[in-house]
Design brief:
alpha/beta; globular
Length: 419
């Protein structure tokens, strides 16, 4: 079993790929990496793995994160029950040879019922082990990227190279890379709540924390009808609050397994224990909780019922994290939802840049989930690498042509001077 504290305490010491306190050593600062991955959550882990699997040399990859603790999954969501079955998590762990994950590793997930769901800590622990493995392979930098810009001087057609990205790090140094993959995660969406105090969704998703934030006299509003929202409604009732008012835009949807292993409403439907609770309590009039009210989320209903609530929780999804500013681009960063392309040499992946695609019935959905991320990367990383190689080849050819033309002009001038 990996002990997160002991491993993190080693991040600023002996490993040759780990930078010191500021995050970048003199050698890493002067180097132009071929690929840099920003973020060490599940999508960042999968990106590093797939780059290695596709033949990118370990010395050509930099990996930047301020914590290296499996992102929000490891830091905030460990107690949250997943809507993903155990077998899908184990598929993720085996999806990249670079992970070097062995089922013999002493993790509880290896002995769980593969068709059951589990708390996210059971996938966070083995992912911490994978992080440790990868961090000993690529250049791992303990820092945050604050800003990205394209280097103007490398755009010269006679330079013989493509443009590089310059990253300004929180530690005060810069790093250069030919290609950058943003796996920067997301943050919860919210809305104006008037005078009603907002209870952060990250507190509400951990029932042990939630118990400390609510009282028996509270009437709590919950916005949303997704997996997270229904789970929060359930846990508030378990905590014994006076009442729960659930505002929703869409009726409850349930993921439906098909014979071929695919799901209808795979990305939007309720699954696992949360789905079971909703079917038995919300859908069954005989068991409907007396202290639960549900209203369509219209301006009239919100104005009528929200002011009577003592707290409000917004479980209305997530939005792209805005901690990294990219010069010349708005926020949220626009991207191709089929390829992750943002700009030449700049790509996005993970919950901040999800793929858009059909479910089993052809319904177009944003595909969010660990397995979906690594499956997507398996398809797009080879394309990214091919694009990068094509740019380098074109730049090299243009540079050689320009240098050849320059030498011809010099030789002609030398001949003319002698005539």
């Amino acid at each position: 079993m990996v002990h997160r504290t002991s491993w993190l305490s080693r991040l600023s010491s002996p490993l040759p790929s780990i930078a010191s306190k500021s995050g970048v050593t003199n050698s890493t600062a002067s180097k132009v990496y071929r690929w840099t991955v920003v973020g060490a959550g599940p999508a960042g882990i999968a990106t590093v793995g797939k780059l290695l699997d596709n033949g990118i040399q370990r010395s050509d990859i930099a990996w930047i994160d301020p914590h290296f603790d499996v992102g929000l999954v490891g830091r905030k969501w460990r107690s949250v029950w997943s809507n993903t079955v155990v077998s899908t998590f184990t598929r993720f762990l085996k999806a990249s040879p670079a992970f070097r994950y062995l089922p013999s590793n002493d993790f509880a997930i290896n002995s769980m019922d593969p068709n059951s769901t589990c708390q996210l800590r059971h996938i966070a622990d083995p992912l911490q082990k994978v992080t440790e493995t990868l961090s000993g392979t690529v250049a791992t930098i303990l820092d945050s990227v604050r800003a990205l810009d394209r280097e103007e001087e490398t755009r010269r057609p006679d330079s013989g190279i493509g443009s590089d990205w310059t990253m300004d790090l929180a530690g005060g140094t810069t790093l250069r890379s030919r290609n950058v993959v943003l796996a920067i995660g997301s943050k919860p969406r919210t809305m104006p709540s008037g005078k009603v105090p907002i209870l952060p969704v990250e507190h509400a998703l951990d029932i042990d924390i939630l118990r400390t934030k609510v009282a028996a006299t509270d009437t709590v509003a919950v916005f949303g009808s997704s997996h997270s929202a229904v789970m929060i409604v359930r846990d508030l009732l378990i905590c014994g609050v006076k009442g729960v008012v659930n505002f929703y835009q869409s009726p409850l949807l349930y993921a439906v397994a098909k014979a071929d292993g695919t799901f209808l409403h795979d990305n939007t439907g309720l699954k696992g224990k949360t789905a079971e609770w909703a079917k038995h309590n919300i859908d069954d009039p005989k068991r409907y909780p007396s202290n639960l009210q549900r209203f369509k989320s219209t301006p009239d209903m919100i104005a009528r019922h929200l002011p009577s609530c003592s707290k409000v929780i917004y479980a209305i999804g997530f939005q792209q994290d805005d901690s990294v500013k990219v010069s010349g681009f708005p926020h949220p960063l626009p991207y191709d939802q089929k390829t992750g392309f943002i700009a030449s040499g700049l790509y996005g992946v993970g919950i901040g840049f999800p793929e858009r695609g059909p479910d089993a019935a052809g319904n177009m959905e944003l595909k969010v989930g660990m397995w979906k991320f690594v499956d997507y990367l398996g398809r797009v990383v080879p394309k990214w690498i091919a694009e990068s190689n094509a740019v380098d080849t074109a730049a090299s050819t243009n540079g050689a042509t320009a240098r050849g033309t320059g030498r011809a002009k010099q030789e002609s001038a030398s001949i003319n001077s002698r005539l």
